[in-house]
Q: What sequence folds into this?
């Protein structure tokens, strides 16, 4: 190198070209996150995409339909079990249960990502209450089957044997 030439300094690139959804490493390493099925991870992704479409606001009022989940790649038979799983593991909360019906009466369920800020509150991080991978896998398995594993209110009636799984809703009754 010649005496009159200065050494090059390299700047680290820290910009991202578009919208992104940050996730804490603590959450990614948690037993609850490691126990998630592929459908459950896609559901979390879709709800984060909906949050981005709302400009990072309206967490708790994010409308996501089954059609949205199916279009994103969740199998139609895996929507309800996946929603139960992410709620039981504490990543998503159903804030308003939707209704099927004619166009004028139909509403989408609304969700809140517990690991993201709401308008006026910090993340609640319910997924942190799960301490071991065994506990997380047991909760996820029970939720996918539609069994109550302490994640729902005690006053909610059990599912009748005459109803098939497709009638068992993914959101608790309000």
A:
């Amino acid at each position: 190198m010649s005496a009159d030439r200065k050494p090059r300094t390299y700047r680290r690139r820290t910009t991202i070209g578009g919208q992104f959804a940050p996730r804490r490493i603590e959450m990614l390493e948690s037993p609850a996150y490691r126990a998630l099925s592929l459908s459950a991870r896609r559901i979390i992704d879709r709800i984060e995409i909906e949050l981005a479409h709302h400009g990072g606001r309206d967490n708790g009022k994010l409308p996501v339909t089954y059609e949205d989940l199916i279009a994103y790649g969740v199998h139609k038979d895996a929507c309800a079990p996946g929603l139960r799983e992410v709620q039981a593991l504490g990543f998503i909360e159903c804030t308003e249960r939707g209704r099927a019906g004619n166009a004028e009466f139909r509403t989408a369920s609304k969700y809140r990502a517990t690991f993201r800020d709401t308008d006026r509150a910090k993340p609640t991080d319910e997924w942190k209450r799960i301490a071991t991978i065994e506990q997380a896998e047991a909760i996820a398995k029970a939720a996918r089957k539609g069994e109550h594993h302490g994640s729902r209110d005690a006053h909610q009636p059990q599912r009748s044997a005459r109803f098939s799984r497709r009638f068992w809703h993914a959101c608790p009754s309000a």
